[in-house]
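Bumping with the actual sequence this time:
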Amino acid sequence: MSDNCPHQFKPQSKRKFLNHLGGWQGMCPRSFHLFVAENKTKSPEEIYTSYLTSKGQTNAEEYYGVNKEKIIQYIDLVRNSLH
C-alpha cells in the first residue's frame, strides 16, 4: 500500500477495506487478494511462495516490479485485515 494512501495502517471494516482494494485492483495480480484470503492461516512467506508456485512463477520482483519484502509486507497487511 502506498505511503500516501489515506487507508494505510488504519483499522477499518472488512467491507470498507475490500471496497478500497477494488479501486486499484489493476495494480495487483488478478485474484491475489482472494488467494491471500483463502490461505490466511499460512505465514506471509508461505503465501508468497504458494502464490508464485500456483502461477508458475519464480521471480515476482521481475514480473510485478516490486521487491519480495514489499510483497510479503502487503500480504501480511491483507491477511491481518481478514482476521
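The C-alpha cells above came from a reply further down the thread. The radius of gyration is 12 Å.
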